[in-house]
Structures are given as structure tokens and as C-alpha cells.
From TrEMBL:
The gene is ddhd2. The lineage of its organism: Eukaryota, Metazoa, Chordata, Craniata, Vertebrata. GO terms for cellular component: COPII-coated ER to Golgi transport vesicle. It comes from Dicentrarchus labrax. Belongs to the PA-PLA1 family. PROSITE patterns: DDHD, WWE. This is Phospholipase DDHD2. It comes from the Eukaryota.
Length: 772
């Protein structure tokens, strides 16, 4: 059995449908038959024999002068990327290709495998095996190839590399032709494939007519050859620039609902790759001088995937949902089950813990692995959340504990003693000393006991009454003092202002009376999950801000994030639905001091945050500058029309003021005597004139100065809401581009530049706007 060498590994979907030459591709098979690929290729001299599709142009090219003496071809390494409908080969950067070539020379001298890290150390290449493995995420290994010869058919869009054994045969024939200056050499392969070396610049591959595609329309198409090129420099391929080795900042990116992150149904891995590529291009253009001076390296972006863990076999939720799914409109129902249900899962007492645990453990795993592969890294870490991913991070960051602060509810001057004596005293005070041995058997102290839920104590065999006594005591002991006294100062700054009334004595009393329950409980019919809200950040007591959120154990991150970026985030809506009307301006995340809410103006899922902090002022969101340093044309036109209308309004007010002033300056002698009743009219006239002047001055003030307004400490006193500039075509029909607007952030250069500016501003690196 023999195949065309061009089709090995799915080299070209558009190439004629032939088989691959296994004897050339598989050295073991060649050895079994007692021949080598070179032996199987028959080389003959073509004198007057016409090729299947030779033309006079071949003869003209044959008359070109002979090139310089033979020089060995320079190889370049490629990797295979397979999709559902096509297969493509992409080149490594020159730096990575040189590393692989050096390692390849080493492999020949060693028996063990040699591993080379490429693509910013996100992939490992097993050189001997010729495989590429992902480091940070799950991905099937892909083939890599040391490429020297390439081909392209008429229907192909790019050159594809030949297998290495086949390329070696071509290179040997080419070397003989150059050395002996003998051209028009024909290389015939056992499967009927023929390659003719007409001259150094014209090398063609011909396929036997019997193996041609049955569906070609004419005999001329049957004999159409492939163009063959030698060396990567002779083909049109864009070789990517290498990434700087130094990493200045690490960013984890958490996706939203569903497995796909854009309209092309790509995974979070592919979308983050695009975002990383955009950031590298912006660093080269907007931080060019800093890069040339060696002041900066790059920002690493790593994807955090939680969807597969939720919908995997471990939870069995997909199988359970499928059993109750109706058979009609199956594709729509499958889409709903795979995407929209994630919103309900996050609000489910059963699966919310799974989602949060997965996100936190995956971030911590990636952080540990990154530190292992980059031991010299000493930069900061930030997090990005898109859609539901931003809400997950918001809840998680709200419930982080600063390592320097003591446990809430424990006074700083009274350190909490974790000892058996303290546990014994507590149980004695509650009259439950008979359960001391039970708790000590499980190595429980007061801190671990505070983390127990009703089901945990039930599993230890403790009856219902004692369980309630223990849980009630622990929650009261560990609640902040404000919560014990009925104050509504929450989490520690997210706050719902109570309705305050005054009695006849002037004493203020809250409508949230002490008779109102301290905890809101909602029992699940099918789950024993505890819904009591205590010490859970945004899920708080006293009619707090998260009446619909279950009380779960939020895991802690292994680092303190520098900045939290939210893309297309529904955080504001969820907080409002949970019952939060106002965020305390003094509130900050316990371990993260910066927060940006970035959204597209037509994003149907995005909501603002600033109105929940500063409700008395109507603040417009901050407009994110275009990465080319200007506003989009249609927005500049809109602003010009707005200024024209304001100028027209000012002219009208100015004319009105002049008329009033002229009327007021009439000669006193010409005026009739003023009686008491007319004094009021004159006063009204002066008041009207004053109103006109105030209106004009206020309009002028709005135009000239925008007073800086602090919007709380959630972003260190700086603005939080940032809006992208819509494209001109999007402004024609905002409904048509609504879904796309929610998925646009991964490819948005404006968004990537905002992240880079925030990161490098804190490193003291100046931003440069390139000249257009």
C-alpha cells in the first residue's frame, strides 16, 4: 500500500485525493523490506520527454543562469493545528525553531528524550517523539515537524510541509543536481508520484492520472501540478516574533457560561491566546522604547476553565438533566443545557460550591505551576472575569481573608486560643461536655468547629438539639460586633442602609428591630445545605445583601490579586437582586485594592457599579480611548453635534440676558411711579435675569471643567465603570450586534491596552502613543 507524501498527517484538504506513501514516511517499514526511502526513489534524467503539463514557460525558466554552489537548506520547525474541517501547519518563532534545531542535534547523540519549552513556556516539545504538549491546560498532543521542503496545489491557500523522510529524499536529489549541474531530473516514487527538478527555481510535483480526484471537471485539471519550494524563506509564511522571556505580570482569565467564549464557538484557551497576542502587539507599539531599553518584558495571560469540571462525569449533572429534557428542538435544548443552566447552577446550593472550588483550585494550581516554571518571577498577579466568571471572582474576592488581619469577631487584643481546654470550656458553658471526646476524636478545635455545618455534626452522631446550640454559639462568637448589636454594617463595607425614623424624644431607631431574625434560613427540599448567612462577605445577616445566595465555604487564593478586571459583568444586577441597594464608599476587597468594570455599550449582560456607590450624582462612565489615540469618527461627529446644540443654547440665553439688561437700564424719569405692587414685578424681573445668568454660567461650567468625583475605595478612589467605543457599523443597529458585543472583549485591542496601562502604570513605565 502506498500513499502520496503530500497527504501525510492531513497536510492539505484541498489537494487531490490520494493515499500517503507509508514506505517513505515509516523508516521501520522501509527497513523491514530491506530498502530505504532513498532506494525507493528512482532518479532518471529527462531529456526530450515532455512533462504532463509542460509549457514554453518551463523552457524560458530553464535558460536562467545556474545558481551558486550547493548550500545546505536551513530547516524551520512547524506544528500541526487540527480543526474539525481542516488541518494547518504553523511555524514556530525563529527563537523557538533554533532551540528545537539545537535540541534535535543533541537527540541524535542521546537515547533519552529531550524536552524543549516553547511559546513562552506554555508548551513542551518532546523532540524525539516529535510531539507538542500543553503545560497549563488539557489539550491533545499535536505533531511537530522539522520542515525543509514545501508544496502547494492550485486550490491550496498556503504551502504545506512535506514529511521529514520525503524532504530528505528531495534534498539529496537537489544536492546531486546542483553539484553535477544536471537538471530536468525526474524523481519517481512507487505510488506513481513524480517530481521533476526543471531548474533551481522551478520544481514541480505531478500525480498519476489514475489517482486523481474523480470529481475534477476536465482533463486539464487532472494534470495540474503542485508547486514545490525549498526552504522556509522561499514561501510566503508569516513567522511570529518570539516572546520576551521576562514576565512582568501574571493574569488569570475566568470564562463565563458555556464552553464557548465567542461567536466562532472557540474555547477559553483560544480566546485567551488571541488576547495575549493582542497584548504583545500593543507592547511592541505602545511601549516600544521601554522594550528596547529592556525595562519591560511581557504580561502572561492564562485561562481558567471551570465548565468542564461542572459538566463532567464527577457531578453527573448533564446525565441527570438529559433524562428530563424534552426531545423536541433538540439543538436549542442542548445549547440551553450547556450554557444558560450555568447561571442556575451558580445559584444552586449543590453546585455553587463545586464552581467556586473549581475556580479557586484551578487558579492556585496554575499559580503554583507558573512559579515552578518561572522561579525568577517576582511580579504581581491580577484576575479577569468575563460574564458569570466576573461574578464568581467578585464573590470569591469579597470573602478572602487578609493574612495580617485577625478572624472577624475576635478582638485584636484577645487572641483566639485554639486548644482543647478552650473547646472544653466552651462545651461546658453550653452544657454539652459529654460531646468533647467525640469532637476531639475528629481533631476538631474551635476554628475547625466554626467551619462545620449541621450535616457535619449530624454525621458525628450529635443530636439535633446540641447541634443547634453549638452552631448558634459559634456563629454569634464569630460574627462582627456590629452584627451582634443589630447594626447594618456589612461585609465589612457592602451595606444596605436601613430605614431610620425618629421618635418624639429625638432618638433614632431602625426599622430593623432586634425582634427581626438575625439569620435568614431557606431549607432545600432535596439537599441538606445550610443557608444561614454568616461571615460570608456579600452574604450577610440582618436582612443583608444576599438573600438569595447560599452560605458556602469560599476557598482562599494563594496570592493577593493586584487588580480585578470585569468584562461584560452582571455583578451590579446580581447584587441588586440579592437585596443590595448601596455599596459603602469605604468598602474594599480584603486582598485586592483595584477593580475595573469594563463593558461594551450594547452588551445586554453588562451592568454598572458606580451608581450603587455614588447615587446622588449621575456619572457618565469613563470612555476607553481607542488604541490608536483618538475617538472613532462617528463619535467625534456626535460630540460635534452636541457642542453645536450647546453653543446654540448659549447664544439664545445670551440674547435673552441682553434683552433683560436693556429693559432694566431704561431711564428712571421715563418710568412711572413704582407702587408697592409693582415692586414685586421688578423683583421677579431681577430674579428671572438672575436665573438666565445662572443657567448660562452652569452650561459654561459643564463645558469647561469636570470636577473629579471619588467613587469610593473599591478602586482606590478612582473611576470604576469604563465603556468601550462602539464601531460605526454597530451604531446602525445596536440590537443586531448585542450578542457580539458581549463576546467582543477577547479580541478588543482597546480592552487589552487598558489592562496594560493599569499594570505598567503601577510599575512606573511610561506609555507612548505611536505616531499615526
Amino acid at each position: 500500500m502506498s500513499h502520496s507524501p503530500g497527504e501525510e498527517g492531513g497536510l492539505s484538504q484541498a489537494a487531490p485525493k490520494v493515499n500517503t506513501q507509508e514506505q517513505l514516511d515509516d523508516p521501520n517499514q522501509a527497513a523491514a523490506t530491506g530498502t530505504t526511502p532513498e532506494d525507493q526513489v528512482r532518479v532518471s534524467q529527462v531529456v526530450d520527454e515532455a512533462s504532463p503539463s509542460s509549457t514554453s514557460s518551463f523552457e524560458m525558466l530553464d535558460m536562467e543562469p545556474v545558481p551558486a554552489p550547493y548550500q545546505e537548506v536551513q530547516p524551520h520547525w512547524f506544528f500541526c493545528r487540527r480543526a474539525e474541517d481542516n488541518t494547518s501547519w504553523l511555524p514556530f518563532s525563529r527563537e523557538d525553531s533554533d532551540k528545537l534545531e539545537n535540541a534535535c542535534n543533541t537527540v541524535r547523540e542521546k537515547e533519552e528524550e529531550v524536552v524543549v519549552a516553547v511559546d513562552g513556556e506554555r508548551y513542551d516539545i518532546h523532540v524525539k517523539e516529535r510531539k507538542r504538549y500543553a503545560v497549563y491546560w488539557e489539550q491533545a498532543p499535536t505533531e511537530v515537524r522539522r520542515c525543509t521542503w514545501f508544496y502547494k496545489g492550485d486550490k491550496d491557500t498556503r504551502f504545506m510541509p512535506y514529511p521529514e523522510d520525503f524532504s530528505n529524499s528531495l534534498e539529496e536529489a537537489y544536492m546531486i543536481a546542483v553539484t553535477l549541474d544536471e537538471w530536468k531530473r525526474k524523481l519517481e516514487f512507487p505510488n506513481g508520484e513524480t517530481i521533476i527538478l526543471h531548474n533551481p527555481k522551478l520544481i514541480m510535483q505531478y500525480q498519476p492520472i489514475g489517482l486523481q480526484d474523480e470529481w475534477v471537471s476536465s482533463p486539464s485539471e487532472q494534470t495540474r501540478p503542485r508547486t514545490v519550494k525549498r526552504g522556509v524563506d522561499s514561501i510566503s509564511v508569516e513567522i511570529p516574533d518570539g516572546e520576551p522571556e521576562k514576565v512582568d505580570h501574571l493574569v488569570f482569565m475566568v470564562h463565563g457560561i458555556g464552553p464557548a467564549c465567542d461567536l466562532r464557538f472557540r474555547s477559553i484557551i483560544q480566546c485567551v491566546n488571541d488576547f495575549r497576542s493582542a497584548s504583545l502587539s500593543l507592547l511592541a507599539s505602545h511601549y516600544k522604547r521601554a522594550q528596547q531599553d529592556g525595562k519591560i518584558g511581557r504580561v502572561e495571560f492564562l485561562p481558567v476553565n471551570w465548565h468542564s469540571a461542572l459538566h463532567g462525569d464527577a457531578t453527573g449533572v448533564d446525565e441527570d438533566i438529559q433524562r428530563i429534557t424534552l426531545p423536541s428542538i433538540s439543538r436549542l435544548r442542548h445549547f440551553t443545557n450547556d450554557t444558560l443552566l450555568d447561571l442556575f447552577f451558580y445559584n444552586s446550593p449543590t453546585y455553587c460550591q463545586t464552581i467556586v472550588d473549581t475556580v479557586a483550585s484551578e487558579i492556585n494550581r496554575l499559580h503554583t505551576l507558573f512559579k515552578q516554571r518561572h522561579p525568577e518571577f517576582n511580579g504581581d498577579v491580577s484576575v479577569v472575569g468575563h460574564s458569570l466568571g466576573s461574578l464568581i471572582l467578585f464573590d470569591m474576592l469579597t470573602n478572602q481573608r487578609n493574612g495580617s488581619e485577625t478572624r472577624k469577631g475576635v478582638p485584636t487584643n484577645e487572641p483566639f486560643r485554639l486548644s482543647c481546654d478552650t473547646l472544653e470550656q466552651t462545651l461546658t458553658r453550653l452544657g454539652l461536655q459529654q460531646y468533647l471526646d467525640t469532637l476531639q476524636t475528629e481533631n476538631l478545635d474551635l476554628e475547625s468547629l466554626a467551619l462545620c455545618q449541621d450535616g457535619d455534626l449530624k454525621d458525628l452522631g450529635i443530636p439535633l438539639g446540641p447541634r443547634k446550640k453549638i452552631l448558634n454559639y459559634m456563629r454569634r462568637k464569630w460574627l462582627p460586633e456590629d452584627c451582634k448589636t443589630g447594626a447594618v454594617h456589612l461585609a465589612p463595607g457592602l451595606q444596605v442602609p436601613p430605614q431610620v425614623t425618629s421618635d418624639h424624644d429625638g432618638n433614632q431607631s431602625s426599622e430593623l428591630t432586634m425582634q427581626q431574625s438575625q439569620f435568614h434560613r431557606a431549607q432545600s427540599v432535596t439537599s441538606a445545605v445550610d443557608y444561614e448567612y454568616f461571615d460570608m462577605g456579600i452574604g450577610q445577616t440582618n436582612g443583608g445583601i444576599a438573600k438569595g445566595q447560599v452560605s458556602i465555604d469560599y476557598p482562599q487564593l494563594a496570592f493577593h490579586p493586584q487588580t480585578f478586571f470585569a468584562f461584560g459583568s452582571p455583578i451590579g444586577m446580581f447584587l441588586t437582586v440579592r437585596g443590595l441597594k448601596h455599596i459603602d464608599p469605604n468598602y474594599t476587597f480584603p486582598t485586592c485594592k483595584s477593580f475595573y468594570n469594563i463593558y461594551h455599550p450594547y452588551d445586554p449582560v453588562a451592568y454598572r457599579i458606580e451608581p450603587m456607590i455614588v447615587s446622588e450624582v449621575d456619572l457618565e462612565p469613563m470612555l476607553i480611548p481607542h488604541h490608536k489615540g483618538r475617538k472613532r469618527m462617528h463619535l467625534e461627529l456626535k460630540d460635534s453635534l452636541t457642542r453645536m446644540s450647546m453653543d446654540l443654547k448659549n447664544n439664545v440665553l445670551g440674547s435673552l440676558r441682553t434683552a433683560w439688561q436693556s429693559f432694566a437700564r431704561l431711564p428712571v424719569a421715563a418710568l412711572p411711579p413704582v407702587d408697592e405692587g409693582e415692586t414685586t414685578k421688578e423683583t421677579n424681573l431681577q430674579d428671572t435675569q438672575g436665573v438666565c445668568e445662572e443657567a448660562e454660567s452652569s452650561v459654561s461650567a459643564e463645558q469647561t471643567e469636570q470636577p473629579e468625583i471619588k467613587v469610593g475605595m473599591l478602586n482606590g478612589g478612582r473611576r470604576i465603570d469604563y465603556v468601550l467605543q462602539e464601531k460605526p457599523i454597530e451604531s446602525f443597529n445596536e440590537y443586531l450586534f448585542a450578542i457580539q458585543s458581549h463576546l467582543c472583549y477577547w479580541e478588543s485591542e482597546d480592552t487589552a491596552l487598558l489592562l496594560l496601562k493599569e499594570i505598567y502604570d503601577k510599575l512606573g513605565v511610561a506609555f507612548e502613543q505611536p505616531q499615526q
